[in-house]
Design brief:
It comes from Schizopora paradoxa. By secondary structure, this protein is α+β, with helices and mostly antiparallel strands. The chain is built from 6 helices and 3 strands, in the order αααααβαββ. It has 2 domains: 79 residues; 92 residues, no CATH class.
Length: 188
């Protein structure tokens, strides 16, 4: 069926509804009881058949409507988000990613546009956390060097977290390192 069929279908259903609503009064006008009984049986059978069909239709609509709403919502979001300028996303990314490298990495992997945009915002890459405890792996040095290079124009903040299982405590040491273009990055 083509989009837009719902209006015609709705009008037909209203017509059928009016027909069934008028049946009880129109059946009173039939003269002989035997004829009336046959007609009543047929109308009752028709009404039950229509009721089953409408229940089936109602169930199908109940499952169809949320899916259509989700698809429409996703399409509208995609269309509207593509209209937003990169400057708006840059502001959002900065608020979402400050002091959280994992958020920055996740955002940069959403799509090519977000990846290119996040790479163009050095401030997103300025906080690198090295964390050593029983539950997390270390940030690999190679990755830290990549992130440090991305932060070059904005400076670099390192947070080194130490976890001491004997004390069941951790210590954080924040360090901010202003970096200029002559600062070398290497893991040697």
């Amino acid at each position: 069926m083509l989009p837009g069929f719902g209006r015609d279908f709705g009008e037909r259903l209203e017509h059928v509804g009016k027909h069934f609503a008028d049946l009880p009064s129109s059946m009173e006008k039939l003269a002989p009881d035997s004829q009336r009984i046959l007609e009543l049986k047929r109308h009752l059978q028709d009404a039950r058949g229509v009721q089953r069909s409408l229940e089936s239709l109602s169930n199908a609509l109940r499952s169809c409507i949320p899916s259509l709403e989700n698809q429409l919502s996703a399409a509208l979001v995609r269309e509207e988000y593509s209209k937003l300028p990169d400057e708006i996303f840059a502001i959002i990314f900065e608020f979402a990613g400050l002091d959280d490298l994992q958020t920055t990495i996740s955002v940069s992997r959403v799509c090519r546009r977000f990846g290119a945009l996040s790479l163009s915002i050095p401030r997103l890459w300025t906080t690198i956390r090295f964390k050593k405890d029983l539950y997390e792996d270390d940030l690999p040095i190679a990755d830290a060097l990549v992130y440090a290079e991305r932060s070059r124009p904005a400076g670099l903040g390192l947070t080194v977290e130490f976890f001491c299982p004997q004390l069941i405590a951790s210590r954080k040491i924040p360090i901010f390192i202003p970096i200029d273009s002559s600062t070398p990055f290497s893991n040697s």
